[in-house]
Amino acid sequence: PQDHQLLRFLLDTDEK
Amino acid sequence: QLAPEQLEMIEKLVAMQKQCNKRSFLDRPKVTPWPQSQDPQNREVRQQRFAHFTELAIMSVQEIVDFAKQLPGFLELTREDQIALLKTSTIEIMLLESSRRYDPAIESITFLKDFSYNKEDFAKAGLQFEFINPIFEFSKGMNDLHLDEAEYALLIAINIFSADRPNVQDHDLVERLQQPYVDALHSYIRIKRPNDQLMFPRMLMKLVSLRTLSSVHSEQVFALRLQDKKLPPLLSEIWDVHE
């Protein structure tokens, strides 16, 4: 399901 | 003795934690300031304090996700398992991090190096004493153990890889990922405190008491909803019960 969108975003983003 | 790879792993954990903490510290100016006004009844001021606390919590979530992503093996888990682990461990790690920042001399918790809050400040931010008191009890208890950075970092890694979290699918992999941290903590403590056989079980019991605190936190979240104090989207995603 498309839940935890923001958490998924944080997990996907690779800031380094 | 600590095996070389254990020593290296611990040093890496501590460095990761420092890096995540530093990033939050650099973001500090972006946080809604803690109002200096003393008027407890002013609705605007109360709302601002609540916003200040929730923004600090959001920064903490970002730190925890950053840290977890750098833990060897975490990204090998399915995305759903990553979310299941983070969803439950986030509040517990926040409580561990708060306890690390507890100063018994001023009975306060210092976030981001220069924001110190006592129980009254937590209450002014909108939290109820049914939650505030256990936070400070836990923090006092942890402070009495005088853990160092390595022990906190290992406890956090152990806490993240808890195979019995709700909705976790690959229990075996989570347990396998947790084991090296448990072993490293055990050896580390035995070297640091050779005469204190009880320290390791005492630390593990702190992880158990975090479970109780987590359920007290859920009651706090529910109470906030009753007061129509809305959590920001990221915190709502993790803590609110969505029908």
Write structural notes for this entry.
The complex is a heterodimer of chains A (16) and B (243). Chain A has one helix and no strands. Chain A has one helix at 5-12. Chain A starts with a helix and ends with a helix. In chain B, strands 1-2-3 form a three-stranded antiparallel beta sheet. Chain B has 243 residues and is mainly alpha-helical. Chains A and B meet through helix 1 of A and helix 2, helix 3 and helix 9 of B.
What's the pLDDT, averaged over the residues of chain A?
81
Mean pLDDT of chain B: 93
Order of SSEs of chain A: H
Instruction: Give the terminus-to-terminus CA distance of chain B.
Output: 51 Å
Low-confidence stretches of chain A: none
The largest sheet of chain A is: none
- In helices, the fraction of residues of chain B equals 55-70%
Gross morphology of chain A: elongated
Helix/strand/pairing class of chain B, anyone?
A: mainly alpha
Terminal CA distance of chain A reads: 28 Å
Structural class of chain A: mainly alpha
Largest sheet of chain B: 3 strands, antiparallel
- As laid out across the biggest beta sheet of chain B, the strand order is 1-2-3
Q: Biggest interface, which chains?
A: A-B, 9 and 15 residues
Total number of strands of chain A: 0
Rg over alpha carbons of chain A = 8 Å
User: What portion of residues of chain A belong to β-strands?
Assistant: under 5%
Cα-atom radius of gyration of chain B: 18 Å
